[in-house]
Amino acid sequence: MKGTLKIATLFDIPVFLHWSFPLIFLWILFLGYQIDAGLQPIAILSVFFVSIFLCVVLHEYGHALTARKYGVNTRDIILSPIGGVARLERIPSRPVEELLVALAGPAVNLAIALFLFPLLLLFREHGIFFQAESDLEIFSQWSNLGPLILGTNVVLIIFNLVPAFPMDGGRVLRSLLAMKMTRVKATKIAFIVAQFFAFGFFIWGLYFGNYILCFIAIFVVLTSRVEWKSVQRAAAIKGQAVSALMSPIRTKLYQDQSMREAIAALTENEKYFLVFDRNDSVAGVLFYEFIMHAQAEQDLDSTIGKYQSNSWNAFKSDYPLENAIAIFQQRGYGIVPIKENNVLVGQLDINTLNRFVKSI
Ligand SMILES: [Zn+2]
Fold it and tell me: 19, 200, 216, 296: least CB-packed within 10 angstroms?
């Protein structure tokens, strides 16, 4: 992934650090410098942040390994200053599975808190309470590290269980609703609930001058909308075949024609072409970008065969549309021929596909 650094691969799942992650340490140094804290508080603060991010990594593995139990793979785990995210390849289809996957993250933080709590009570003089006269002093004593980590895990549990996307609580709410209704309806209700929470966060943040909360509110509005749209989209696409978006082959280009002829064939609606050999079989594909490249190079007398791409696969006309969209995205296809009983019946291009997806 762009802008990330792989730091480890555990359980076959790579963990990436977002480029902005080291900013936290710059921020710690800046903070330490500003309050003239000396080396020890900076060291304590750094160890504290590393510990919290380890807790976040474990939280994400909670999601990822539970998802694996239900046959869902995790592409990667990405850590950024505002938290972690385990990118699952898909959401488990059964609501109860989604519920357990969503709960598994906060459950890890609960386990850490339940582990630390008795240890602190038993072995620490002040138990779970800080040993400090002022807020600043919290970070000048190593013995405060335990309560700090415990407290942050408790905050992580509460924060993550707020029933608003993209927090885990939003998924918990959606999966509980989906046990009683369709997934689309459940997501719509969860989306509306998220808007209420975002509104509350925003007003609260403004009123108390806590602008991070305002930022989170905006984040909730944007991500919950993406979730609602993508579920709506998936529902609209489900059950449809590629034939629904197939168009007739209006222009036939041949491998031995020149690029000049390809330019002549370009129209507002036709920018991707199937390329045929003289037996009228598909031999390749030609994209708008390739044609423009040839024009920029003033290489218009070359054959189309020189510029065509061989990256395509024929689809059968009853091939599921949702799979086709995924393949277009994964392999960067521009156009594919569509066949029925091995006979070419039409084509599907990326522009038509994008227009359709946008229209839902
Ligand atoms: Zn989570």
Answer: 296
**Residues 143 and 66 occupy one common structural domain:** yes
**126: which DSSP letter?**
T
- Domain boundary at 134, 161, 188, which? 161
In three-state secondary structure terms, 10 is strand
Q: What burial letters (b/e) apply to 30-48, b meaning 16+ CB within 10 Å?
A: eebeeeebeeebbebbeeb
pTM: 0.69
Could you give the angle at the alpha carbon of 243 between the alpha carbons of 241 and 244, nearest 5°?
A: 80
Are 55 and 82 part of one and the same domain?
A: yes
What is the structure's pLDDT at 304? 92
Q: DSSP secondary-structure letter at 280? A: S
Looking at the fold, whether 49 and 170 belong to one and the same domain comes out as no
User: pLDDT band for position 75 (50/70/90)?
Assistant: confident
Ligand 1 centroid to Cα of residue 313, in Å, is 38
Instruction: Tell me, in angstroms, the distance from the centre of ligand 1 to residue 288's CA.
Output: 42
Tally of domains within the chain: 3
pLDDT digits (tens, 9 = 90+) for 331-351: 888 899 999 988 899 999 988
Residue with tokens 């082959």: 249
So what's the pLDDT on residue 274?
Answer: 92
**In this structure, are 206 and 120 located in the same domain?**
no
Which amino acid is residue 141, in one-letter code?
Q
CA of 229 to the centre of ligand 1 (A): 21
Same domain, 151 and 218: no
E strand intervals along 144-293? 253-254, 272-276, 282-287
Q: Containing domain of residue 112, as a range?
A: 1-161
For residue 112, how far is its CA from the centre of ligand 1 (angstroms)?
15
Domain stop point among 161, 176, 204:
161
